[in-house]
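Box 3.1 — From sequence to structure: FAD-dependent oxidoreductase
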Amino acid sequence: MTNPPSPWLRRRLSRRDMLRMSAIAGATAAMTANPLTANAALPGPASAGRRVAVLGGGMSGLAAAHELIERGFEVDVYEGKELGGKARSMPVPGTGSDGREPLPGEHGFRFFPGFYHHIPDTMRRIPFRDHTVYENLTDTAATRQSYQDRPDLTVPTRMDPQLLSVDTITQSLQAALDLGTRIPPDEWAYFSNRIWVYLTSCDARRYGQWEYVSWWEYVDAENRSDDYQQLLARGLTRQLVAAKETQASARTIGNMAQAFLLNIMGRGNDGEPDRLLNGPTNEAWIDPWVELLRQLGVRFHMEHHITELRARDGRIASAIARHTKGGRRRIDADWFFCALPAEKARLLWSDELRAMDPTLSNMDGLFVDWMTGIQFYLNRPVSICPGHVAYMHAPWALTSINQAQFWPRHDFPNDFGDGTVVDCLSVDISDWDTPGFNGKEAKDCNAEEIAREVLAQLMASLNDSGDEVLRGSDVEAWFLDPAITWDDDGSHNDEPLLINTTGSWDLRPTVRTALPNLFLTGDYIRTDVDLATMEGANESARYAVNALLETTGSNAPPAPTWQLYQPEELEPFKRIDEQRYAAGQPNMFEYDG
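Predicted structure (token representation):
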């Protein structure tokens, strides 16, 4: 028996639904007028103090330090692990020999879509040799959807000569035809309609209606074919944004679907649709950034784990840090920027702080999940795709990139490892809760089992046509993100990812708090890009800096910010939908498919 569609998805709405929609429309009207600053506390009393303590040295912490130091503040950054957070790369211990660098490891591969604006702006201000870090971005040529027991689909992000081969074109045409025959035409029509409904939905409907509907429910996946569920309902969430389709809000996935659609059309982009760095992340970006910040005067304090925030007279008086090697330190400053990830920041909210700002307790409801990477170091060149690969039937929702082709400054065997490794196949694991071919969830496997199972899932998709694209013997070594650890209680992930579950926008804070000298920044903050990404972290840092400038009455120029591109041709439809939503009516393009 199939489940009935949500009341939100019916053509006819009940009177109760209409009243609820009208109530939500009224309640969200003020928020949607400027959703990024809603719930912001009024600025506290101005202070002549210029000392800022940035608690955390990940993406948002470094971005905040950069914007602050350029505007005349004294900045100290306190970090417990490594600068760069989840975006950093790291050397694999004990793998370099004869003057070569250790093999490059990472939390997961980097990806810079064209709709990013804040990260590119930061990169343009970081010197790198005779140019800037921005010039270290390199374009991909294609993306590949790899299926199991059916042709793969390779889609160019730009027209590249290596894609114009008989094999590639034949395979992609076969894949497109195969996909078209497996998903019935009426389901294609319904899915297309759902995308169009979202594109023409006004902001009030997006925040007041689609925020509270899961993507799975929004596209009515429960009542559709297996291929519809696997490729359309799950494909856009697990491979694209590492979210579970039954939990992620339709607003978040719809926003990203719109952003990526416009991205490949080149609408509102800052650069090509799909870019990577031309070397390990720390080499090409993080290390030059930290060096620039040091030259500008930022002071970094490493191995400092923030354990407490102390308040006095309605403000933060100090922070307490525990040093990795022992001992405690009191951190004094005029202003405090909490740049820790959500799951660590909310541990600092004492009963006293929660009483002073009750909205901090909302963060207890934010949900984090696992998305992390494993690298396979190959002893022979393996040609898969000149860009990202999504393994559509992999139980663990895998995506990968072959890195050597994008690192022109490096000769892999001469520069890394012991001379036997010629490439790094970097793989992201986005689903740790679904049984793999081995019958076990990734969270229930040890590191060796994870490596074997990921390799098996890759080969099942890549080798299904009979060619051995990837062989087990190609793997010289592998490296799993060290944030994954094991003890008697099982596996743990010290660096999970925020997931935008249904209704979570209500729980996410803005940069201001009721404590006038405490500002929040991180990928969980309300931002326009919305998703937990490097871009969102950078964007939030700029909001926090601008809030501080306003609080202090500074005449320094605000940090520039951008919003996602909104096509002008959709505005008439959205204005009509705004009236319909306020009247408790569905989007004009809704239909029962």
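Summary of the box: The longest strand covers residues 304-312.
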